[in-house]
Automatic annotation (TrEMBL):
Catalytic activity as recorded in UniProt: 6-carboxy-5,6,7,8-tetrahydropterin + H(+) = 7-carboxy-7-carbaguanine + NH4(+)
Keywords, ordered alphabetically: 4Fe-4S, Iron, Iron-sulfur, Lyase, Magnesium, Metal-binding, Queuosine biosynthesis, S-adenosyl-L-methionine
Protein name: 7-carboxy-7-deazaguanine synthase
Gene (name only): queE
Family stated for the protein in its record: Belongs to the radical SAM superfamily. 7-carboxy-7-deazaguanine synthase family.
Subunit structure: Homodimer.
Species classification: Bacteria, Pseudomonadati, Myxococcota, Myxococcia, Myxococcales
Amino acid sequence: MPAARPHIEPRLVPTADSVVVKEIYLSLQGESSHAGLLCAFIRLTGCHLRCTYCDSEFSFHGGARRKNADVIEEIKALRTPRVEITGGEPLLQPGVYPLMQSLLDEGFTVLLETSGAIDVRLVPPAVHKIVDMKTPSSGEAARNDLRNFASMNANDELKFVIGSREDYDWSKALIAEHRLAEKPFALLFSTVFEKLHPRELAEWTIEDRLSVRFQLQMHKYLWEPNARGV
Ligand SMILES: C[S@@+](CC[C@H](N)C(=O)[O-])C[C@H]1O[C@@H](n2cnc3c(N)ncnc32)[C@H](O)[C@@H]1O
Ligand SMILES: Nc1nc2[nH]cc(C(=O)O)c2c(=O)[nH]1
Ligand code: SF4
Ligand SMILES: [Mg+2]
């Protein structure tokens, strides 16, 4: 049993065959290159970051510990080939690693949303990792683990959530400095919802001829932006 970490509630100290789950639901994937596709979501409890714009603060606490086997049965009952594990920060819970492997073994396409602040080397390579690069306006840019670039493959996506011109210039400079356009993984540019107008980001990207995929959080336009379970 790993030692308790101060940022995790004692209840969240992980065991290998279970995870603390905030919610499970079926929706359309609203983000990433997989946007628009039917997708089940497993949102895990707990996060060690506090991004200024976080739209999922409700997942910092609560939820219930569930056996991985039960989680997999619930996902199978949703009748979708695709599942995303998000949070909170999913990689804080050791039980998530066997959960991802079991979902792959069951034949699911598995996506993972993670903050970019945790080493992703132990994530099974077949998982589609969507790794954030925390920009200055998140208040958490110092937590980025740039070593993750070397652990990401062609299944993966590096995502910049941009809330200002400063964030945009910072992102552009990081891409140039680390030659990220030459890496096997995709680059995503998204806006912080209702902080930066999407058209501004689109126009900057066109002006600079950037090789990135512009994307929005589609579910926030389909449903009420604060709706849960979508
Ligand atoms: C809620 S987080 C959960 C996974 C992980 N903690 C992370 O940050 O990647 C999922 C995604 O939502 C993005 N996100 C959170 N709040 C947002 C907002 N207000 N506008 C746009 N994207 C947001 C995050 O940057 C991240 O890419
Ligand atoms: N529809 C939908 N797509 C999503 N993609 C990533 C999400 C997340 O919260 O991580 C999310 C979400 O909350 N809803
Ligand atoms: S890392 Fe993700 S869940 Fe945690 S505060 Fe930031 S956006 Fe929210
Ligand atoms: Mg979300």
